[in-house]
Every structure is written in structure tokens, then in C-alpha cells.
Amino acid sequence: MRTDASVPPSLATALETLRARGLEMRRGSEEPMPERGRPSVPTGHSTLDAALGTGWPRGALTLLDGPAGSGGTTLALGALAACQAPGGLAAWLDLDGTFDAAVAARLGVNLEWLLVARPRDPGEAVDLAAWLGRSGLIDAMVLDFGLRAAPDRRALDRFGALIARSGTTAALLLSPAGRSVAGAVAGVRLALRRTAWLAVGSDLVGQRVHASVERHRWSQPGGTAELDLWFADGRRTDSLAPALAEPRDIEVIAVERAALRVVSA
Amino acid sequence: MTRLLALVWPDLRTPDADATRFPRMLDALDDLSPRVEAVDVGVALVDVTGLGPTWGTERRVAARAVMLARSVAPLPVRCGVGDNRWLATLAARLARVERPGAPAAFHALPAGTAASREALRDLPLSLLPADAATRQRLAMFGLTSMGQLAALPRSAVGAQFGAVGERIQALARGHDPRPIVARQRPEQVAAGATFETPLDGIGAVGFTLRRLASDLCDQLRARNLAPGRAVLIVTLEDAPALRVAQPFPQPALEPDWIARLLLSRLEAVSRARNCRAAELTAEDPRVVSVRLAFDRLTDPAARQLPAFEARAGRWEELRWSLERIRHRFGEGRLWQAVVERPTAALPEHRSRLVDIGP
In this predicted complex, what is the ipTM? Predict the structure, then answer.
């Protein structure tokens, strides 16, 4: 004799169950399952990789959000170098013409496999990035808008949709005015804040940056990481470095190694 | 017996000369003889052996060659005929115009070893391709003419001047073993389509273009060849024809890529022409016919770079997209950075950008 439990549910019952579950999910009562194993590009920092899940997610726009001199460019260059290491191709879209190839090379970027694009305006930059993404051959790209305004929201939306299909990871470096627009579109938003300088003797050799994942579409936000970003040549001699980045009141917080001192930011 | 015609265009041998006409002049000379060699820019050798019954005397053959070359570029030319490379070139050097303003000068050295040697006998040694030190030593021995050098025993010249001396003595005797190396005429494969009802707009040729490219690629694939350049000519109903010459980033047999690249280039050319005309017409130009030609044919298997570096293959593939981006956005957008002075104080002095060309 068959019990009730062994009786298969009728089609109507099964459909009702599925519909209810779907409605429940649409109402948001169930947490969407995080996407596991999403392909990613390493950031070059193990702690940041852990905070982001596995690294910069592929097929996503990532906003590096921080004031000038907080290490966004260095972090982006490090990501390109890490992406190139296993054989990837990278692109840097340089709107203001401030890309310094020598610094990039010292941070490990292989210039032979780096495409530098010089668009005329932010709108063209997004179009050009979309064309590059559509090729499906660029693994990582950085859109450095410099001090220019961000492109309009619709252009970024279109770009984000295209990037999602291409599997390219794209990082945005924006002025403060453009971050509100891009922040809503970006799949990942990483807030950067300098917490200290790193010095050897009287030379500043790097900076300690606090990175916090404020938004992540495919993983839990809220992860943080302390990053030590080293200047390319060990000294801050770059005349393009913003004056704000110079330390004002130097106060030694700690001596970490024999010569390395952590200085107040 | 071989007879060679040397043609020298002095105006093409100057540093600022427009050398792009020279290949077309050689193409024109192909109509005279199947064996034409480009010795250098502005110097050509044509094998004229056996052309007498067709064209007449050597002077008439040379006149025919001059006429063919002048159909491309009306430049003054020196013609010389001889039994070998050296004698033909020397004859061209000795040629003098017979009247002021004549388009060509002609000189022929007689055929046959003995006759050639006799003709060279009184010529000065300065005509021989020898270095200054050798010439000075020849003068110290009291040798001033080719006949004097030719009359010496070969072993004696070899003992004094070495291999160089033996070589210039052979030239003084009228011997030159170097054969003519005929150039291979650049091959081109072409296909075309004519529309009974003209197509509306440039974009409408995309399908036809893809089909033509596919046919030509199939032909070439069967011969294990791949094109390095495509030339597309689109004939329009009420406007001059559009011509697009597109070198490929690499020899390719991908009709889809080729058609897309050509179409984007064609649209760019059409757009530029409309801008120049400064008049916006409501109607697109109507296309009457399309002709697609592939040239610079090479063996696709010769490309082995991706075998050594996988990324190189992807980068080459990327160049197709870059070509299309170049057409879409214009020049000056895509670069590669090269570090020149990494320790320079100013960032702009540390590196430079190199345009990514086709």
C-alpha cells in the first residue's frame, strides 16, 4: 500500500509550489544565491582579493573611489600587471594624457601588451572602451577620466551591459564630480582612504591605504583590506603628484622593520 | 646569347624622388618581356633576348621599353644593351642623348665576348666598381684603361690585388657571371558583382562584399595562399567611384573579418567625401557595381609567431578590432607606450607613445 508521502504531487500542485516560490523570490524574502566561481582578475594584493571574493570580477565595472593621491592609479596599474602576468592583454584609456609609461613599467606592467588609448572626450572614451570590450580580447582595462566630468548615465549603463557580456574587467578612475554617476552603475565600488605614509629615512616610499568594498553585486560587500602601495621609484619625485599628497605633520606611528617607518598621513 | 637592356632613371635615384612610381613602371615593362629585374630604385634590367623578330633592332626594343615606362611617368631615362648585367649597366652609363631635350639616351655594346672586350678596351678604369684604394694602386702600376687590365695574366692580378682584383679584371674583360633575377609579378585575384537594380546606400553592399570575400578566400585557401591587402572599388550611380585599399594586420583568410573591415573603411571614406562636398543629400548614393581584389599574397603557414607566444596571436587578432576602431574614431587614438629615459625628471621625457599602425 502506498502512503501519501510516496504519491507524486499533481502537476497543479507542483506548479503552485513553483509559482509561490517564484513570487517569494520576487518579493525579496529569499536571499539570492551568491554567484560562485565567477571569473575574476587578481588585484595583485592577496588581502584585497579576499575582500573582493576572488579579485576584480570579470564582466563588471569597478569604481575606484577615493580622493586624489589615495592610490587609485597605483592600484589600477598593479591590477593590470597582475592581469598580464598569466598572459592577458590590457588597455589604459587616458583622457587627460597623464599616463606615465615609465611608472607603469616599474610597477610591473608589460608595455608590449598594453594598449594606450587617447580618446577626445568622456563620451568617446566610453564608446572606445565598448569597442575594445566587444573584441573580447582585452582582459582588463582602466578608464582614467582624470579631472574630466564623467559621461552620462545612459552611456555608462550601455557600457556596463556590454562589459558584462564581454568578460572584460573595467576599472574607473574618476574625479569627485563623476563618482555619483558611476557609483550607481558600477558593479563593484571600492572606497580608498590613505591612512599612513611609509617612509625609509627621509624618503617616502609608499602609502598605506584602507580599502573597503562598499558595493559588490556578486558577493557580500563590507570587506576591507589594508594595502601597502609602494611608489614606483621608491621616492615621490613625480612633479604631477598633487600637492595635497605631501605629508604635513609628520608623526612616526610605528617602526615596522629595521628601516621602514609608518608616518601619519 | 643573352642580351640585357638596362634602364636607368636618374630622377628616381635622388633621395627626394617619388619612388612609388617605380613598381608601376616595372609592371608596364612586363608587357615587353617576362624577365624584368628591379636592381635598385630607378634601375631595371630587362631580358630582351630573342625580341628582335617581334620588335626589330635593339634600339627599337629599347624605344618600346621607354614608351611603356613613360606611359607611367614621363621621366628621362638612359638605356644600355649588353651581353650581361655589367655590360648592360655600363652601356646605360655610357649612353648620351643625341639631341637636347630627347627623352632617352641609348647605347649598345656589341654582342659576343671578343667584340665586347674590344669595345671596353679604351674605357677608363674609373668606370669599374672598385674602391678608391684599389684604383690608386692600379694607377701606381700605370694601369689606366680596361684593356691594359684585361691583358694582364689573371694570376698576376690575383697575386697583387687579391679576389677584388680578379673580379674587376673579369669585368674589364666583359665577364659577369651574375644572372638576371626576374621579379615575380605581384599576383592579384579579383571578383566583382554588378547590380541590375542599383543598391540604395553603401551599407547595402555588405552581403555582396561578404560573398565576394568568401569566394576569393576559398580560391586562395585551395592554393595555400592568404592575402595581405584588399582593394575594393565601388561604382556609384551619380558620383565618382569609391576606392578603398586596406592592408590587413596579418595575412588572413577570414571573409567575415575582411568584409567588416572593408565596410567600415568604406563608410569612413564615404562619410569623408560627404563632408568635403559640404552638401547633405537626403538620399544615399546608389551602388552600381562592386569589385574586390586581393593582393600581396603570401603563405599563411609562414606566420609562426603565435606558436612562440600565445599572447602574440591574440594581439594580432586584436589588431583587426583596432583597425576598425581607427576607422570609426579616426587617427591618433591608439598607441603603445615605449620607455626611453626611465630616470628622466619629467614624466613626458621618460617615455613616448608609438602609433599602432596597420
Answer: 0.73
